[in-house]
Structure formats: C-alpha cells, structure tokens
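Supplementary Note 3. Input sequence used for the single-chain structure prediction.
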Amino acid sequence: MNTMLGLSLPAFTQLHVIISLIGIVAGLVFFAALIAGRWLSLINGLFLVFTILTSVTGFLFPPKPIGPPFIFGVVSLVVLAVALYALYGRKLAGGWRRVFLVTALFAQWLNMVVLVVQSYQKIPALHALAPLGNEPAVLATQGVVAALILYFAWTTLRRPAV
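The predicted structure, written as discrete structure tokens, is reproduced below.
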C-alpha cells in the first residue's frame, strides 16, 4: 500500500483536502477583508502557507503522467513565488502591491478551479449532475468562481493600499 508522510493514501488525501480548504477559505476571508479596506496579515499568511502546501502535497501523490494537476501545481508555485517576492522582498512598494494582488488572486483562482473539478468528481450529488465533468453545471460553477475572482481583482486593485 502506498504511504505518503507515513499516512495511508486515503489519510493523506484527506490531509491534502483539509490543507486545500484552509488555503481557499483563508484566501476568501483575506480578499473579502481587503475589499472592506482591512489587511489581515495573519489570514494572508495562512492563505499563502496553505496554498503553497496544497501544491507541495499534491506532488507527493503517486506519480501519474504529466497532466492538469501537475501543471496547476507548478504554475501555482511559480505564481506564489512572485507573490511572496512582492510581499516580503519588495514590501508591496509601488507597483509590487498590484503584482502581489494579481498573483495571489491567480493562485486563489487555481485552487478554486481544482475545488470545483474535484467536487464534481468526488461528491456523489454533484457527480450525478455532471458525470463527464464538462456539463453546464460545472461550467456555470466555474463561471461563478471566475466572476468572484474578477470581482476581488476589480475592487482590490482599484482600492488604495491599506
């Protein structure tokens, strides 16, 4: 039986899902607070750490051919490296605030896309609505996710720095 970090595959999968959900929820809370004009450093830190951990733990699953999960993980880590540099290396000075917001929101969007896809694949009630994964229900849900991220981007990029 495959084990990762000393956990069985089902236990590791559960840990990975919990890590992912913490990152997603922290990101939603952080960006919602930004819209309200508040910078929540602790929540931002949770978002960044757990979003990075989501990608890192995703690479620990048994190897498969390179596909969307691998590509999403690589892109997410690259984007998050830029976000971390903008935040900690450049201290959000000048245009680096926008760089941080765009890259952090992009990482949030990637995680939420995966959440939607996995939800339709793994949750029986959702899977019944979209067994192939590309039905109108999935596309509509992805549209809502995209609209939410675009709303966060529009409002946070227009707002003066907090």
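The helical segments are 9-35, 41-58, 68-89, 96-122, 124-129, 136-158. The first strand starts at residue 3 and ends at 4.
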